[in-house]
User: What shape does this take?
Amino acid sequence: MPNGTDTLFVLTGGPGAGKTTLIEALADAGHATCPEAGRGIIRDQMAVDGPALPWKDPALFAEMMLSWELRSHHAAAGRERPVFLDRGVPDVIGYLRLCGLPVPAHMWTAAERFRYNPTVFVAPPWRAIYRQDGERRQTWDEAVRTHDLMVETWHGLGYRTIALPCAPVEERLRFVLGETGVEHRS
Assistant: This one.
């Protein structure tokens, strides 16, 4: 089992809830971060006209996300200081459940073996900031369902979730740092 998982802090939730903006603020404040798998994979697959897109082959997209999340976990667990991750392995399970697809046994195994800090931060659906774009095609209702399934999935795997306030990014940053006890760097 990988070491150092208590310093791996995950931000999860539905799409368009401000997770990436908060991750970028944490990085700007000097904290170690890992980006979200989904957007990176979508950009790369669109650039090469690849098949691993959620609207083409959701199961293949999930496998690529799992690979990305495992790589991120390995890289983050090797660090001496806390790392803030935009999603984690359980999010892949939540995604497959959202799609109504079976969750392969190896994904459950990965979620049990590759653990994170027991407290996970959840960006709740926030209508005022939600926007669709070329990579984020989910409707508002899908975004809400995604949030609900992510919370359910993380809870089912033994994590405690804390909802982020629907507030400006600076307030969210202070909230996360206060809850984690991580020193503000900037």
About this structure: The chain has one domain: 5-180. Strands lie at 8-13, 32-34, 83-86, 119-123, 160-163.
